[in-house]
Design goal:
There is one protein chain. The chain is an alpha+beta fold. The chain is built from 6 helices and 6 strands, in the order E-E-H-E-H-H-E-E-H-H-E-H. It has a 4-stranded antiparallel sheet with strand order 4-5-3-6. A two-stranded antiparallel sheet has the order 1-2.
Length: 165
């Protein structure tokens, strides 16, 4: 038996037990049994991991303001370069950049924003720190932005919420 215990920032302790059969090196066990056991163990660990590592997903959508367009290329470069160390600090703290991208003009039902970023945060406290960092950097002086955030969830959970509205 393997016991996995984690405590999150909200002081909620969650302990999950995973019973794992120990394979012995008996002659009646073959490689297929071992492979099936390893595959089952992998899926059980993934299921437990998804329950104890509730991540916060944060999505930014933005487009430039006139104030950004009025900056020289050197001023824009200086501003962007000062963001790098802050982003590295976030990554060192467990934040994951899932992706950044440009919103394609051909997107059906396109949002009226030109760029997006998708982040994963380990907890709400880190999301709050990030939001303060963005505001403190002067980002909103140069960009119109909207944000989406919430617990990472499964399609079934969200579709269930839609049904139960």
């Amino acid at each position: 038996m393997v016991v996995l215990s984690m405590s999150n920032e909200n002081s909620r302790d969650c302990t999950h037990l995973l019973k794992m059969n120990t394979l012995t090196d008996n002659n009646h066990k073959n490689k297929t049994d071992a492979s099936n056991h390893n595959l089952n163990t992998f899926y059980n660990l993934r299921a437990i991991n998804s329950k104890i590592n509730i991540m916060k997903c944060f999505i930014e959508l933005w487009k430039e303001k006139e104030s950004w367009r009025k900056l020289s290329q050197q001023e824009r470069s200086n501003y962007v370069n000062q963001l790098g160390p802050h982003i590295q600090t976030l990554i060192a703290g467990g934040v994951e950049i899932v992706c950044w991208g440009a919103n394609e003009k051909s997107t059906d039902q396109r949002a009226d924003y030109d760029f997006f970023a998708v982040w994963k945060f380990p907890n709400q406290e880190m999301v709050n720190q990030f939001e303060k960092l963005v505001e403190g950097s002067g980002w909103y002086n140069y960009f119109v932005q909207v944000n989406l955030s919430g617990d990472a969830s499964s399609p079934n959970e969200i579709l269930g919420q839609l049904i139960n509205m």
